[in-house]
Amino acid sequence: MASEGDKLWGGRFVGGTDPIMETLNSSMTYDQRLSEVDIRGSMAYAKALEKSGILTKGDLEKILSGLEKISEEWSRGAFVVIKSDEDIHTANERRLKELIGDVAGKLHTGRSRNDQVVTDLRLYMRNSCSVLSAHLLQFIKTLVERAAAETDVIFPGYTHLQRAQPIRWSHFLLSHAVAFTRDSERLGEVKRRINVLPLGSGAVAGNPLGIDREFLRKELDFASISLNSMDATSERDFVVEFLFFASLLMIHLSKMAEDLIIYSTKEFGFVTLSDAYSTGSSLMPQKKNPDSLELIRSKAGRVFGRCSGMMMILKGLPSTYNKDLQEDKEAVFDVIDTLSSVLQVATGVISTLQIHKENMEKALSPDMLATDLALYLVRKGMPFRQAHAASGKAVHLAETKGIAINQLTVEDMKSISPLFGTDVSQVWDYANSVEQYTTPGGTSKSSVTAQIEQLRELLRRQKDLF
Ligand code: ARG
Q1: Ligand 1 pocket: which residues have CB below 6 Å?
Q2: How does this protein assemble (predicted)?
């Protein structure tokens, strides 16, 4: 059994902790990532303690220089973790005592690890949100600029994964970019709710030393102060919101990945992934697999698991801090790491993707213009329902004759409706077809160009927000 003498809370204990319980209880292997923010929070708290007369100027100087030294040890990789370090907060305080002696024991006055850990996590996540936002904006920019460079490429648009209508390749790229801008906006909202100071809430009841929380807020650059100490120490809404933001982003990424996996098959042949984002088969020499996209797709499941896992942990917890909350950090760190690599790989995939215009054009077939044929009749005054039926008859007639719909003669067409004339030949042009969709949001060149401009503007604005 380990001795309790060196534990922060050892005073009331006579028996030791079971070694397996000690391992289960420890968060040290992963919460080391909070070392820097933990020190930052402690420095601010020490200054506030000096302001409220708990620390002398001399005490404060000693504590700050001790914390500075510990920070430097962490950054050099020289900090030695010992077995009794239960978590990052205990480890830093233990080391502070080794460096500056008993005055270190004054630092935790009126503070609890309950308000300390959630302050650390908020500081850490606030910074991570900015890093992730930069990756996300870069990714969206890559999609938008690729769309701008390839507006003339036309290929099939699918619904139910069946050929539907011709669209611009750019329109497809932008459809994904638009979804990612919602993710980016959502991340900004999440960051706003992360940016609230819980320090000064203590364990449950608040702070009894008249600590200046407004001073702490300014020191740690938070936008506001939490309203209620019981809520502040236990709420992890910001964690769930972050994990949900991440899950939805991953769903969008995996949808795009799935589209591109399908488009990269020999059967479609629309795109080829660069070697940098593919791998080969150990058995079949000809294989080039889209592993980057498959990994993006699979990580969506992983991230969603973290999100639902966290909600399961929170469900049914009684008020205020419970040790269950220690689980939040692994979920957050794992999701931050996953998003960071996935976004950078996705950016790489899009910027190096090769497209095969000829195959895209070849995949367009005249039957995809059946809607246009109906519209031709609508423009001549026929109600759409009748026009739809007439065009359907033309599809059927071509099928029974074993020819493409655009091979039907004008006489064939006239047998379906007298409104058909020789000008029907104009319908059989894919470039003309896409150019009809000039309404905002459509696939015409003018509309796609307007979308690109709006997205560029939105990216400029969102960059300024982070
Ligand atoms: N390691 C703990 C966590 O991550 C810190 C808070 C511990 N608080 C407590 N009352 N035991 O949540």
Answers
A1: 27, 31, 87, 113-114, 117, 321, 323, 325-326
A2: Homotetramer.
